[in-house]
Amino acid sequence: MALEVLPIVDGQLSLDQGFLSIKQADALLQQLLAELPWRHDHLTVFGKSHLMPRLHCYQSEQNLNYQYSNLTLQPQSYHAKVLQLKRYLEAVTGQSYNAVLINLYRDGLDKMGWHSDDEPELGNNPSIASISLGAQRCFKLRHRDKSAADIALQLNHGSLLLMAGELQQHWQHCLPIRKKIIQPRINLTFRYLYS
Ligand SMILES: O=C(O)CCC(=O)C(=O)O
Ligand SMILES: [Mn+2]
Fold first, then answer.
1. Per-residue pLDDT tens for 95-135?
2. Which one of 28, 112, 125, 128 is most buried, by most CB atoms within 10 A?
């Protein structure tokens, strides 16, 4: 399948629902579920500590720490399959990535709240490549000043979503709870961090 440019104002969004074949996506999902050093961290929200509603890990090739939701993530080195995927994405998108945040949603109760990927180390208009594996989940976007309608995408097993241009300045995104989903999902967001 091919990358489809989605209609959106104030940013760029493209989606390839079949970026990886089912066979590739199945193998990658099983290997990453079993082999990544998953962390279950606490987050502090309004002074109260909560377990995050997902597991995660963070990998980069250089010594780049990532500040994210009051957490400083120390980089691990790339898993061989993650590095292979990074190189493949770089060849396809023409972008460079030097870090990847990987989230594991154990089932439909795990989620990510509304946010933009606008940490200062990402620079002004980051190009972010997001790969989804496992359960199909809904990914929502909302414009910060409500001047455009909300968008809901279903992200398939093996899909690639590219977020670029001014998207992170104008839009927020989230991964809402879906109570009926009992299968896990892994999402990898490849990014370029400026040090
Ligand atoms: O799981 C997803 O599809 C989104 C993850 C996300 O927004 C992030 O890691 O910043
Ligand atoms: Mn995000």
1. 999 999 999 999 999 999 999 999 999 999 999 999 999 99
2. 28
**Quick check: 12 and 165 in contact, CB under 8 A?**
yes
How far is Cα 63 from Cα 50, in angstroms, rounded to an integer? 28
Q: Kindly give the pairing relationship between strand 42-45 and strand 171-175.
A: unpaired
Angle between helix 22-35 and helix 80-93 axes, rounded to 10 deg: 140
Where are the chain's structural domains? 12-191
- What pLDDT does residue 1 have? 59
For ligand 1, pick from 103, 105, 174 the residue to mutate: most ligand atoms within 8 Å of CB.
Answer: 103
* Ligand in closest contact with the CA of 103: 1
pTM for the complete prediction? 0.96
Span from the CA of 182 to the centroid of ligand 2 (angstroms): 22
Query: In a mutational test of the pocket of ligand 1, which residue from 167, 173, 177 has the highest number of ligand atoms less than 8 Å from its CB?
Result: 173
Fold classified for 12-191? Jelly Rolls (2.60.120)
